[in-house]
Design a protein that fits this description.
The chain is an alpha/beta fold and 494 residues long. It has two domains: 41-378, Alkaline Phosphatase, subunit A (3-Layer(aba) Sandwich), CATH 3.40.720; 384-493, Arylsulfatase, C-terminal domain. The chain is built from 13 helices and 17 strands. The strands form four sheets. An eight-stranded mixed sheet has the order 5-4-6-1-7-9-2-10, with helices on both faces. A four-stranded antiparallel sheet has the order 12-15-16-17, with helices on one face. The protein has a three-stranded mixed sheet with strand order 8-3-11. Strand 16 (418-423) and strand 17 form a beta hairpin.
Length: 494
């Protein structure tokens, strides 16, 4: 049938209008999908490495440890140069971060018993230690779960028998266990609940595989994935080929352990696997990634110079930790913050990021999100409390107050650039100006009595406010002469 020119023009007009309408529908549909994508709450991946020191990464200045993936993350997020763990060893640090609360509120101060070290050298009876967070505490897992998130904990939990009792939908390899045990980094594992893998499979690789599986299975839902690696905690065990590479590498100053370096290398490779998975699934732009460590590095394994001491100590090397926060579209990559922060600040910050409707009633940290926009947060004092004993790891290199203990009972305050240590056994006070003496080598308490008193008074008021327990009961088995002899014996070896 022949169509006239007039009818052909009308048909073209109709088809043109239909095309425009169809294009508009496509545009509106695209905008709607984009709006729906933008309105979805951000995913959160919180990576918590075990015993990784402040200086044990390339972006922090190490020339011995190779960490290209974490270094890359530091360029995409904000680096906090003065970030602190809330405690100097594993369990209390994790309890503080997961609950957002100070130690006196949950009673976890150490791992196992607080009566560490030789009994005759402990002048006081330390405060008893809790090993499990109370069911009444509203954890990060519960907060995310109550705000519509799928929640998963993959790795070292350490603060109860099962994270599923505290708001997590999924638990892989998490219990009260604090380490993988002898030969535990290779399958067969000692990190239940975790199905055995092929013989010789490496635990860090396996945990990452499990985490990736969870991400893939929940790519269409908001998720909170807490990934506390067992690495790089002792026993030091690494993949042989990676370790051999570091044995051939020139060591750094105080960084020369090839096994430890290989463990860090494998951890970094797995961070890369996680970041690539987020990119491949199109989730990277809507995922907050946080990278940190539960406490300072172990001094006899890796020096944290210029910081003093290491894990278990409340000198800077024991509590200052790496911290990177990446949030695409909200944090400019490569930003460096010198604001002192603690891991307790993560809880209120994440509540803000996800615009939580259900929130914790009480938290001891502050929201860091203003820093992401170039603004400031209110100045505040930071506190640590440890009414316990932690025996020495290696008296030759620990850099502790005495060679028998990394930590004796006391409290610490950081106020501005000033840091005051108080020791309960002898009433000792140590004052340091971190702006001039980050290595805490020069106690200036006698030179600045007014500042010492001001900080000491703040410590007392803080303990009263938080009901922080102070050990006062004398240990009847304490032997001053024996302690003196033991201190002299250890110092003769130095």
């Amino acid at each position: 049938m022949k169509i006239s020119k007039k009818n052909l023009k009308k048909l073209r007009d109709i088809l043109g209008k239909m095309t425009i309408s169809f294009s508009m529908l496509l545009l509106l549909s695209s905008c709607g999908a984009e709006k729906q994508k933008d309105s979805r709450k951000p995913n959160v991946l919180l990576i918590n490495v075990d015993d990784l020191g402040w200086k044990d990464l390339g972006y922090m200045g190490s020339e011995y440890y190779d960490t290209p993936n974490v270094d890359g993350l530091s360029k995409e997020g904000m680096v906090f140069m003065q970030a602190y763990a809330s405690a100097a060893n594993c369990a209390p640090s994790r309890a503080n971060m997961i609950t957002g609360l100070l130690g006196p509120r949950h009673g976890i101060y150490t791992v196992g018993t607080s009566e560490r070290g030789e009994e005759q050298t402990r002048k006081l009876i330390p405060i008893p230690n809790n090993q499990t967070i109370a069911d009444s505490l509203y954890t990060l897992g519960e907060m995310f779960h109550d705000n519509g998130y799928v929640t998963a904990s993959v790795g070292k939990w350490h603060i109860s028998e099962d994270p599923r009792d505290h708001g997590f939908d999924i638990n892989v390899a998490g219990s009260h266990r604090g380490g993988p045990g002898p030969k535990g980094y290779f399958s067969p594992y000692n990190a239940e609940p975790l199905e055995e893998g092929p013989k010789g499979e490496y635990l860090t690789d396996r945990l990452t595989t499990e985490a990736i599986s969870i991400i893939e299975g929940n790519k269409d839902k908001p998720f909170f994935l807490y990934l506390p690696f067992y690495a790089v905690h002792k026993p030091l065990m690494a993949k042989e080929d990676v370790e051999e590479r570091y044995e051939r590498k020139k060591p750094g100053d105080g960084q020369s352990n090839a096994t430890y370096a290989a463990m860090i290398n494998t951890m970094d490779e797995n961070v890369g696997r996680l970041l690539n998975t987020l990119k491949d699934l199109g989730l990277a732009e809507n995922t907050v990634v946080i990278f940190t460590s539960d406490n300072g590095g172990i001094r006899d394994v890796s020096f944290q110079d210029p910081l003093r001491a290491g894990k278990g100590s409340y000198y800077e090397g024991g509590i200052r930790v790496p911290l990177i926060i990446k949030w695409p579209g909200h944090i400019k990559g490569g930003e460096v913050s010198q604001v002192p922060v603690t891991q307790r600040d993560l809880y209120p910050t994440l509540q803000t990021i996800i615009k939580a409707e259900k929130k914790a009633e009480k938290l001891d940290g502050d929201d860091l999100s203003p820093l992401f926009k170039g603004k400031s947060i209110p100045e505040r004092d930071l506190f640590w409390h440890f009414p316990i004993y932690l025996q020495a790891y290696a008296p030759f290199v620990d850099q502790a107050r005495d060679p028998l203990y990394r930590t004796r009972p006391g409290s610490v305050i950081r106020s501005g650039n000033w840091k005051l240590h108080e020791y309960f056994e002898d009433g000792g006070l140590e004052l340091y100006d971190l702006s001039k003496d980050v290595g805490e080598a020069h106690n200036v308490a006698e030179q600045y009595p007014d500042i010492t008193k001001k900080l000491y008074d703040k410590l007392i008021k803080w303990r009263e406010k938080t009901h922080a327990p102070v050990p006062t009961k004398l240990n009847p088995k304490y032997d001053a002469e024996y302690e003196k002899r033991r201190v002299e014996e250890e110092r003769e070896k130095l």
